[in-house]
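re: ur msg from earlier - yeah i can do the adenosine-5-diphosphoribose complex, just paste it... oh wait u already did. ok heres what im feeding in:
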Amino acid sequence: MEPEIETAAQKLRGAGAVVALTGAGISVESGIPPFRGKGGLWETIDPMEFAHIDRFLEDPGKVWEVLIKGMKETLDPARPNAGHLSLARLEAMGKLQTIITQNVDGLHQAAGSTDVIEFHGNFAWQRCTKCGWRVETARVDLSVLPPRCSCGGVLRPECVFYGEMIPSHHLVRSQSLSASCDLMMVIGTSAEVQPAATMPVIAKHNGATVIEINPESTQLTLHVSDIFIRGGAGEVLSAVVDRLEELL
Ligand code: APR
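and the outut:
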C-alpha cells in the first residue's frame, strides 16, 4: 500500500471533525468532463462568454444552446462513482461530517451523503427569472430555447453563474466548518476559483490537516496540503476508506 494511503487513513482515524471540499475531478469518473485541463469544458467554451450572468441575461437562448443544454445531456445519465460512494461510506462510519462541493451534479446526494453544501448551487432545478417558479430540470422541455415559464419568464438553472454571489448561508457555513474542522480532504479541484479555493487555506490556518487527492498538483499542493495523494478520486478514496475500515 502507498504510504500516503496509510497516513491518510491514520489521520482520519484520529480526526474529530472532518470536512471534504470537492470539485469537478471527483465526477470525471462518472463521465462528466472537468472545466480545466485535458478535455475541460472551458477549453472549448469561454466561461466569461457563456457562464456569466450578464451574458445570460443579454442572450439566454445562446447560453442555453451553447452551455446549458449540453450540461443537461451530460448530467442526466451520470451516476455516482467509487469516489462519491467512498465519501458516503465515510459519513456512515461517522468520519465525515460535511461535504462542501463546487459541483452542481447532485452525485454526492445520489451516493447517500446527507450533509452536502452546494457551494455553486445545483443543476437539478430551474427557476423562472420573472416570477420565481421552480421546476426540476429533468422536466424541462428543451424543444424551444430558452425554455420559458407559463408566465413568459425565461428559466435559468439554480447554479451560481460567474458574476453572482455565492449564496450567503452556504458561504458562511463553509467558512465556519473550514475554520473548525480537524481535517479537510480536498478532492478533484484545481483550486483556481474563489472563494471556494480559500476553504483549505482557512482550514490550514486554523490548525487542520489538509489531505489533497488529485492526479495533478495544484497551487495548494506545496503551500497548503499536508498530504498529497496523486491519483484518481475513485481509486484513492476507496483505498483510504478500506484501510480506515480495517483500523476502526
Ligand atoms: N480524480 C480526482 N481529480 C481529478 C480527476 C479524477 N479522476 N480527473 C481530473 N481531476 C482533477 C484535475 O487535475 C483538476 O485539478 O480535477 C480538477 C478539476 O479542476 P476544474 O475543472 O477546474 O474543476 P473545479 O476545481 O471544480 O472548478 C471550480 O470552476 O468554472 C467553475 O463553477 C465551476 O465549480 C467549478 C469551478
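cool cool. Residues 84 and 108 are 5 Å apart (CA to CA). ping me if u need the other ligands too
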